[in-house]
Amino acid sequence: MMNNAWLAVTMFLFWILLIVAIVALLRSMFFAERSKGEQRSEATPGSAAEQTLAERFARGDIDEEEYNNRLATLRATPAGRRKP
């Protein structure tokens, strides 16, 4: 009778450990994919500004000369050191 109880406890622990291992594996895979996606979607700070500038130029809000001047300024000024 003691062997049957020990066998039942061992089998229960085996299945619990197997389920925990599978869940841990799936979570690590999910978070690894998620972090890769976040890294891919990150862009340089200037590229968003350049995209906005290009959109304004395409809409006709600014002319070519102003576009080129602002683009040169964006590319010459390091991110985080923008002039007020």
Notes on the structure:
The protein is mostly helical and 84 residues long. The chain has 2 domains: 1-40; 45-76. It contains 3 helices and no strands. It has helices at 2-41, 45-59, 64-76. The radius of gyration is 29 Å and the shape is rod-shaped. The protein starts with a helix and ends in an 8-residue tail after the last helix.
List keywords for this structure.
rod-shaped; mainly alpha; 84 residues; 3 helices
In total, how many domains does the architecture comprise? 2
Calculate the terminal CA-CA distance, rounded to whole Å: 82 Å
Rg calculated over all Cα atoms: 29 Å
Beta-strand fraction estimate: under 5%
Rounded mean pLDDT is 82
> How many helices in DSSP terms?
3
**Quantity of strands, as a count:** 0
- The computed structural class is mainly alpha
Largest sheet: none
Counting copies of identical and different chains, the oligomeric state is single chain
Series of H and E elements: HHH
- What is the share of helical residues? over 70%
Shape: rod-shaped
Low-confidence stretches: none
In short:
The chain is mainly alpha-helical and 84 residues long. It has helices at 2-41, 45-59, 64-76. The protein folds into 2 domains: 1-40; 45-76.
Helices, strands, pairings?
Blueprint: H1 2-41, H2 45-59, H3 64-76
Helix pairs in contact: 2-3
